[in-house]
Design brief:
The complex is a heterodimer of chains A (about 260) and B (about 270). By secondary structure, chain A is mainly alpha-helical. Chain A has a single domain, classed as MetI-like (MetI-like fold, Orthogonal Bundle), CATH 1.10.3720.10. Chain A has helices at about 1-15, 35-40, 40-75, 80-90, 95-105, 110-120, 130-155, 160-165, 170-185, 185-200, 205-210, 215-225, 230-264; strands at about 20, 25-30. Chain A has a two-stranded antiparallel sheet. In chain A, helix 3 (about 40-75) crosses helix 7 (about 130-155). The two termini of chain A are about 45 Å apart. Chain B has about 270 residues and is mostly helical. Chain B contains twelve helices and no strands. Chain B has helices spanning about 1-30, 45-55, 55-90, 95-105, 110-125, 130-155, 160-165, 170-200, 205-210, 215-225, 230-255, 255-265. Chain B is globular and about 70 Å long. The two termini of chain B are about 35 Å apart. The chains are: A mainly alpha (about 260), B mainly alpha (about 270). Chains A and B meet through helix 1, helix 3, helix 4, helix 5 and helix 6 of A and helix 1, helix 4, helix 5, helix 6 and helix 8 of B.
Chain lengths: ~260, ~270
């Protein structure tokens, strides 16, 4: 474990400081040029911005879709609960490539949805090879993680609390917004961070459903390493991305903490 | 209350449809006679499965993926279990650090792990692109699943049982084989199931570490899909789905599905 996990990461960190060689993937001397180039290149920032924007959008949509499901699951018992759990967890166990393929069949220019639109006499719409397709695919893949995170905090919530709020005169929505929602914030936080990080580092979905129209950071890194064969630059980009994403998560954690304290 | 819960039901139903839709569509396409799916379907046919069976790149990738997933799962089951035993019982104040390390491959982006491994293998002159490098990468991804599942079981473990076995004259090894192992079997099996399934579907690591002769199935499928929508891919996908479902069902028969959910995921 130590040899094949810690060492490669340390090695990658080291190589990100080396010069790209001409005959071999990397060479001496040590340099900061890879980082300087990663950070100053406007193109990289645009790709990074895209990556984070898609990931944030995915996390937000997942939250909206997952909440009712998790809420229902937390209150379900016995068979209904088992069936719902199977529905939520089963996509998690399937190969991402196959799930993307399912979306390709649905969203392609002559796919099912566009066939339906044509039958209804409407104009077909481009649903794939653009940001829309990528976000749909990402949402589908990471929704189960959000449901599980929310479920964790909703399950510990005593249903009587909501009843108590109602008996004190709160309407349905009020009881939810003032009581259930604030108490579920830890789950909301965990789920959004998890989905954001996973979505930002996803490779398959943006490349299959985005093709060349969408470029995200993982695609760029893989391209640097596999096609351009510039390992130091790829390694520096990877470090740059990790630090940036972790930084965003840190900022988010501080904001969320403040929001939670404000509610108390 | 009544109207609110009806809306909730509708929302939940819609989300479930969203979750299952792409999978259902893949299966429908695989059994559909036409060369792409339309409504109404053009009749039932197994021709895409036949086309899969005759496509030697797909079948050899399929077998290779099975082999890889089985080996990686076996290795991860041993290493993950040992890791969990050590972390829960002997690590003392290092337990937390060890736990973080063992789970890290699950939490760091796999594509970064792949890049790091690729560069590392080059550095230590291990021939990249082959079963060996892929196996190391996949085992790394599989270990956290086993580790987490076994750890959960171990924390609820009644150590009196082991002491009883010892006081009845069993030596350390026998106690482990006859008492400890059967009791933590649930954790090992459910962790190994998740490990197998995720190795079988693993993509980013394979992308960076595979070679020309050794291409795992998801990678082969990915390459194929970039140039064609042919339903052969749907047949491959359906076989994949069937395999995954049967592995999970077998586990369910053996140790129960609830353990998969409680033990395997955070």
């Amino acid at each position: 474990m130590a040899v094949f996990f810690v060492a490669p990461y340390a090695n990658m960190l080291l190589i990100s400081f080396l010069t790209p060689g001409s005959g071999q993937p990397y060479a001496l001397p040590f340099t900061l040029a890879n980082y300087a180039r990663s950070v100053t290149d406007a193109f990289n920032w645009r790709v990074l911005w895209n990556t984070c924007w898609y990931a944030a959008l995915t996390a937000a949509i997942c939250l909206v879709l997952a909440y009712p499901l998790a809420y229902r699951l937390a209150r379900a018992r016995g068979r209904a609960k088992a069936a719902l759990l199977v529905i939520v967890l089963s996509p998690l166990l399937l190969d991402v490539v196959i799930r993307s393929y399912g979306w390709m069949i649905l969203l392609a220019d002559n796919g099912l949805i566009n066939q339906l639109l044509r039958k209804l006499g409407l104009h077909p719409v481009q649903l794939m090879y653009n940001a829309f397709g990528v976000v749909v695919g990402l949402t589908h893949v990471f929704l189960p993680f959000m449901v599980l995170s929310l479920l964790g905090s909703l399950e510990t919530l005593n249903p009587d609390i909501e009843l108590a709020a109602r008996s004190l005169g709160a309407r349905g929505w009020q009881a939810f917004w003032r009581v259930v929602w604030p108490l579920s914030l830890p789950g909301v936080f965990a789920g959004t961070v998890l989905v954001f990080v996973l979505a930002a580092s996803s490779y398959v979905i943006p490349s299959l459903l985005g093709e060349n129209a969408v470029l995200t950071m993982p695609l760029l890194i893989a391209q640097r390493v596999l096609t351009v064969f510039n390992w130091p630059s790829g390694a520096a980009l990877a470090m740059f991305m990790s630090v940036f994403v972790l930084g965003l998560v840190g900022v988010y954690a501080v904001l969320m903490n403040r929001a939670m304290r404000g509610l108390r | 209350m009544g109207r609110g819960s009806r809306w909730l039901g509708v929302a939940v139903g819609a989300v479930c449809v969203f979750l299952l839709l792409p999978i259902v569509v893949v299966i429908l396409t695989a059994f559909n006679a036409g060369s792409y799916l339309r409504f109404p379907p053009q009749g039932f046919s197994l021709r895409w499965f036949v086309s899969f069976a005759h496509n030697s790149t797909f079948t050899s990738s399929f077998l290779f993926s099975l082999e890889l997933a089985a080996l990686a799962t076996a290795l991860a089951a041993v290493l993950g279990t040992l890791g969990a035993l050590f972390a829960v019982r002997h690590a003392g104040r290092w337990a937390n650090a060890l736990r973080l390390l063992m789970v890290a491959p699950l939490e760091l982006p796999a594509i970064l792990t792949g890049v790091a491994l690729l560069i590392f293998f080059y550095g230590i002159r291990l021939r990249t692109q082959g079963l060996m490098t892929l196996l190391i990468g996949h085992t790394l991804i599989c270990i956290p699943f086993v580790f987490l599942a076994v750890s959960v079981v171990l924390t609820h473990f009644d150590t009196n049982l082991e002491e009883a076995a010892r006081s009845l004259g069993a030596d350390g090894w026998r106690t482990f084989l006859r008492v400890t192992l059967p009791l933590i079997k649930v954790g090992i099996v459910s962790g190994a199931t998740l490990a197998f399934v995720s190795s079988f579907g693993e993509f980013p690591i394979s992308l960076l570490l595979s070679g020309v002769q050794a291409t795992p199935l998801p990678l082969q499928l990915f390459d194929y899909l970039r140039f064609s929508f042919d339903p052969t891919a749907a047949a491959v996908g359906t076989v994949n789905i069937a395999l995954t479902v049967s592995v999970v069902l077998l586990t369910e028969r053996w140790v129960g599905l609830e353990s998969l959910y409680r033990g395997g995921r955070r």
